[in-house]
From TrEMBL:
GO molecular function, one term: metal ion binding
Keyword Transferase: yes
Keyword Cytoplasm appears in the UniProt entry: no
Keywords: Metal-binding, Transferase, Zinc
Cofactor: Zn(2+)
Protein name: Uncharacterized conserved protein, DUF849 family
Length: 311
């Protein structure tokens, strides 16, 4: 079973690299928007903030300078744990994907646990009008794209960030095989418990958003990691709140945010990340569970502390 925990960690993924500006007027693009929405999400109850950066036209960027435009402001106005992406965006090299994390030396980064197809192109069947020329091309390119995370790539990230910067990881597992990949690195001693295992549902190319799959992933993780891990769940789009609620009921942690879903309810767009955080917090507390503070999340995940970062 996963490590026993008395409180639920809420992660908020603020902007990501999946959704494009034309999909929602509320998606944070500028450094000011990312910073303010992150700070507001922390005030609403998120103890971990998962962060990407964007260019002025809303396209994803790995440039450390873009991250540094909002990271210090978030740190100055929040005690939340900063978790920087190493997934980046479609078409980025591994070195580009790691550049911001290497520069910032955060407490946490994401780490994807296997190569996979990552299909965004079905969105083109639903949308025809875009603000920027890059948006439809970006979505179409995912039809012939492999999100690369080889064993060698993962080893490099573990050495560069884990050994080199004392970073702990949000191990992103989009399918059952990714759990076994993580177990492989645990067996080799290249990853150290407590593990923060983020099981992900509903991405085209990964495991589907089926409640039976959620419990199967949980049972598999229990078998592989015992009490050496903390379990968390995110689900794409309309499955977000249903699956995070199931996770909380079953002793897990949760992730919400506009990276994962643009909606707050059926047919109703979320106006901010904080709105989603407030909703899942309300659900958690109505289940007679407690939300973890940033200090408690740091203790649960054995993080190095907010005073050990480079921003």
């Amino acid at each position: 079973m996963a490590a026993k925990q008395n409180k639920v960690i809420i992660t908020c993924a603020v902007t990501g690299s999946i959704h494009t500006p034309s999909m929602s007027p509320h998606l944070p693009i500028t450094a000011d928007e990312v910073a303010q929405q992150a700070i507001d999400a922390a005030e609403a109850g998120a103890s971990i903030l998962h962060l990407h950066a964007r260019n002025p036209d809303g396209s994803p960027t790995p440039d450390p300078k873009a991250f540094m435009e909002f990271l210090p402001r978030i740190k100055q106005n929040s005690d939340a744990v900063v978790n920087i992406t190493t997934g980046g965006g479609h078409g980025m090299s591994l070195e580009e994907r790691l550049a911001a994390a290497v520069a910032a030396s955060p407490e946490m980064t994401s780490l994807n646990m296997g190569s996979m197809n990552f299909g965004l192109f079905p969105i083109l069947d639903k949308m025809k009008d875009f603000q920027h020329e890059w948006e439809p091309k970006f979505l179409e390119n995912s039809r012939d794209f492999i999100f690369r995370n080889t064993f060698k790539d993962i080893e490099y990230v573990l050495k560069e960030l884990g050994e080199g910067h004392g970073v702990k990881f949000e191990y992103e597992c989009y399918d059952v095989g990714h759990l076994y990949n993580l177990a492989h690195f645990l067996d080799r001693g290249l990853v150290k418990p407590p593990l923060f295992v983020q099981t992900i549902f509903g991405i085209l190319g990964g495991i589907g958003a089926d409640p039976e799959n959620l419990m199967f992933m949980k049972r598999t993780a229990d078998k592989l990691f015992g009490d050496q891990y903390n379990w968390s769940v995110l689900a794409a789009g309309r499955h977000q709140m249903n699956f995070t609620t199931m996770a909380a009921i079953n002793g897990g942690n949760v992730r919400v945010g506009l990276e994962d879903s643009l909606f707050i309810g059926k047919g109703k767009m979320a106006k901010s990340n904080a709105e989603q955080v407030a909703k899942i917090r309300r659900i958690i507390e109505e289940l007679s569970l407690e939300v973890a503070s940033p200090t408690e999340a740091r203790e649960m995940l054995a993080l190095k502390g907010g005073d050990m970062v480079n921003f």
